[in-house]
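Q: I'm a student working through a structural biology exercise. My instructor gave each of us a protein and asked us to get a predicted structure, then write a short paragraph describing it. Mine is Gfo/Idh/MocA family protein. I'm not confident about reading structure output yet, so if you can add a plain explanation after the tokens, that would really help. Here is the sequence I was given:
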Amino acid sequence: MGYRTAVIGAGRIANSHLSGVRAIPEFALVAIADVNEERARELGQTDRLNCYADYREMIREEKPDAAIIALPHYLHREAAVFCAEHGCHLMIEKPMAISLNECDEISAAVRRSGVMAMVGHTQHYMAANRTARELVRNGSLGKLVMINDTRHGDYFSADRPDWFFRKELAGGGRMMNLGSHSIDRIQWITDRSINKVKASLTFYGNRGDVEGSGLVYSENEEGVPIMISQSGYKGAPRNELELIFTGGMIRVEGGGALSVSRGGSYERVEVDSGELLFARQYADFLEAIRSGREPECSLDYARGVIAVVESIYRSHECGHMIEVPKTAKIL
Ligand SMILES: NC(=O)c1ccc[n+]([C@@H]2O[C@H](COP(=O)([O-])OP(=O)(O)OC[C@H]3O[C@@H](n4cnc5c(N)ncnc54)[C@H](O)[C@@H]3O)[C@@H](O)[C@H]2O)c1
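A: Happy to help. First, here is the predicted structure for Gfo/Idh/MocA family protein. I'll explain a few features afterward.
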């Protein structure tokens, strides 16, 4: 039998994790927990998983080798610390936690227990982003001069669970939840940290107390300017990252379609999209557990994303440009 794996949280993203784990035979799904036990039962049916309402009881009883934490953001810290203390390798959904202090608590517990842990920043495993990263690395487009990252889509839709709209439970709104994807893809594709931000947020959502939009001017460690524009209000959905170089441009749309210009119009570049991105994520997790090497999205890296998000909130509050606390090296 492979690494016995348990899932904590049977919500909207849980099924993607189940599919990812199933694709890697070295993992064996054994159990699932959700306070809504009915949901756990429904989701656990296919794999005949043992179902629990209390994740602590599941971890104590099942003693899994690995735990997947797919819970509301405010619960990432307590579940990660508990599972690490019980010897489980950890796949923690993004964002790592809702503050740098909480990230540090998780890292300390992981270090003490000697388990492997990573955060599921899915942008790393998207084929278009991986090819974009290679293009940036090979330098054929010249010098990077600016980046625009734009993502719009209705954040306040009725089907989004309530906890997403409470700052104390979600750590923030649009920027914490989806801005973190933008921050991740910008930093990871370019291999450079964002180290300054000036942000302006709005709070016009019809639910809760979190921001519904954010416009962020930022600079990376080499002074390259980056605009992040996120709107969660009604309008035409858009999800586009554009990297502009002296010798051309790269565009990633919807997380899937990659285009490159070397002068003139964009031309579509085919990417290998055959493999499930969650399967790639679990292949990375497996390799990290087996070899002891850091996963592509280590805790230090994921902490760096939270450092930027926290700085965005601080910048909005004080109205100034903020230096992002020093973050770990991008892998
Ligand atoms: N990587 C991605 O692209 C992506 C996409 C969606 C969600 N996410 C992340 O996944 C995580 C979960 O998001 P979601 O959309 O599935 O949320 P969700 O609200 O649909 O699911 C959370 C589940 O946790 C359960 N839960 C709450 N408290 C619990 C507790 N104490 N013990 C056990 N279960 C408990 C809830 O009943 C719910 O079923 C979040 O961190 C979110 O940001 C990531």
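A: Here are two points you could use in your paragraph. DSSP finds ten helices and 15 strands in the chain. The two ends are 31 Å apart (CA to CA). It's a good idea to check both against the output above yourself.
Q: Great, thank you!
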